[in-house]
Amino acid sequence: MYPGTFAATTPDKPAAIMAGSGQQITYRQLDDRSNQLARLLAQAGLARGDHVAVFMENRLEYFVCFWAATRSGMYITAINRFLQPEESSYILDDSACRAVFASAAMADLVAELPHLLPDVEVWLSVGGGIDGFDDFDAALDRYPAEALPGQPRGETMLYSSGTTGRPKGIKRPLVEVEIDDPDGTPALVLLTQGLFGFGPETVYLSPAPLYHSAPLGFTASLQSLGGTCVIMERFDAADALRFIDQYRVTHSQWVPTMFGRILKLPEEAKQGHDWSSHRVAVHAAAPCPVEIKRQMFDLWGPIIFEYYAGTEVNGFVFCTPDDWLGHPGTVGKSILGVVHICDAMGNELPDGESGTIYFEREQMPFEYHNDPEKTKGAQHPEHPNWSTLGDIGYLDNDGYLYLTDRKAFMIISGGVNIYPQEVEDCLVVHPKVADVAVFGVPNEDMGEEVKAVIQLEDGIDPSDEVARELIAYSREHLAHYKTPKSIDFRPELPRLPTGKLYKRLLRDEYWGTHDSRIV
User: How is the chain split among helix, strand and coil, in percent rounded to 5?
Assistant: First the structure.
């Protein structure tokens, strides 16, 4: 199924609503406009296997672009709207992009791109003019809304965020099916339908940027099933709670930093809402501190589901509320791919020991575009069908997976492994801490020592006294060797709206140069 299915059956139903403004696009409008854009791309000479890119804030046209590419057999790349021109031009060049759709809000960031990328044939601007771009609506109006005779199913090719180095294009092979062929239903559509109950009656709140893998994938999956997506223009904790009530939201998706901001709202902002429609809250993207998740269960009840997976879709680990309550801290059990925990040499480790997490599939399900070495680096040295996202974790005796940290950020101090995530989980629940990043910094005797960089809550001023208080708090809850040896304060940490932290940018400041371990 795809929007064209529901353009015929429920044409006036909203496919997407912007939460703040109330603007919406119906299934008929989404089908018509994506057909028009597909015809424009075909007229420009683009065909199956070509690449297009979207560079805009959350807005309804995002879905027109997505479905035009998807019903044309093309790869679509959603670009982080916070990237600078040099970074975005690298992605457009690396992907051999032939069409770019950008919003006027991005004008300062994209104005030079037509001069840097002469091989891109189509430049369309949404919501206002950009030099060198054609107007999106005017261009589409020149084409009929009928579907093209052939509509091969396309794919996303998203780039890693670059938190641990140069962004990598994550490429999966195109399937040989038409967009309306049920045999070609994407795995994510089946997963969201089977695990979370997505369907025509679902109203799904998406508080994160659409350029991120999960929000784009989940909203597209729901539009494949005929539900309604409610898209927040930007995340605000109080607004998010209000929108659940206002739109009678049934399903939602979050990252742990959003939970933390919700919990730290004044009590009056968390009261007076009717959340009875809210049946499923999904979270992913980063490990959630145990205490924060406990408090969210207290706030919303046992409706919080979790999964661990990557854009690579090399595996999928799923955790129900009952799973988590019985195994606090777990991300669940694998339902796609067999999990193996291995040491640095690739040897499998027993239950309870931390190592690199590998997923075993029948064959390698992805490649990093134009980078065979990075593709090889994600594979097990002896089993090429085992692949890793670079995370560290362990399995318990019942087969539940626990995430420890990213391999690249593990601290080795005096030969002892220290996992920053554990220290961050401890500090982030302190009432004076708004956000925290922990990593290793050089130490002449020990090799590395633990450093914490902290964003304090509003109204709390940085001081040596606060630093000593937080270090003492850490010592109460952690082994001495895990406790930060020093704390620095920043007005704000470099965290994306998706919840992902650019820890490398902080860490490199203390090492002076780019750390060769983080690639």
Answer: 30, 25, 45
pLDDT of 407 higher than 70: no
Distance CA 160, CA 170 (A): 7
Same-domain pairing of 129 and 220: no
pLDDT confidence band for 420 (50 / 70 / 90): confident
Residues 327 and 280 in one domain: no
More confident residue, 488 or 412: 488
Domain range for 317 is 312-409
CA–CA gap between residue 437 and residue 501 (Å, rounded): 8
* SS3 state at 24: strand
Tokens of 272: 């007076």
Confidence bin at 165 (pLDDT 50/70/90): low
| Number of domains present in the structure of the chain | 4
Q: Which of 383, 409, 435 is the last residue of a domain?
A: 409
Burial class (CB in 10 A: 0-12, 13-18, 19+), 107: middle
CA distance 66 to 133: 19
Distance between CA atoms of 151 and 178, rounded to whole angstroms?
Answer: 5
Within 8 A by CB and 6+ apart from 318, the residues are: 195, 305, 306, 307, 332, 333, 334, 335
Q: Which two tokens stand for residue 241?
A: 């709670």
The Cα 448–Cα 470 span in angstroms is 20
From its phi and psi, is residue 285 left (phi > 0), alpha (psi between -120 and 50) or beta? left
Give, in order, the Cα–Cα distances in Å from 167 to each of 87, 209, 355, 359, 378.
9, 18, 24, 22, 15
CATH of the domain at 486: 3.30.300.30
* Mean pLDDT of the 424-437 span: 92
pLDDT tens column, 206-255: 999 999 889 999 999 999 999 999 999 999 999 999 999 999 999 999 98
Question: What local confidence, expressed as pLDDT, does residue 516 receive?
Answer: 30
Q: What is the 3-state secondary structure (H, E, C) of 247-261?
A: CCCCEEEECHHHHHH
CA pair distance 256, 285, nearest whole angstrom? 8
Q: 25: which strand partners?
A: 16
450 strand-pairing partners: 440
Q: How does pLDDT run across 3-47, given as a tens digit for each residue?
A: 999 999 999 999 999 999 999 999 999 999 999 999 999 999 999
Decide the pairing of beta strands 155-156 and 75-78.
parallel
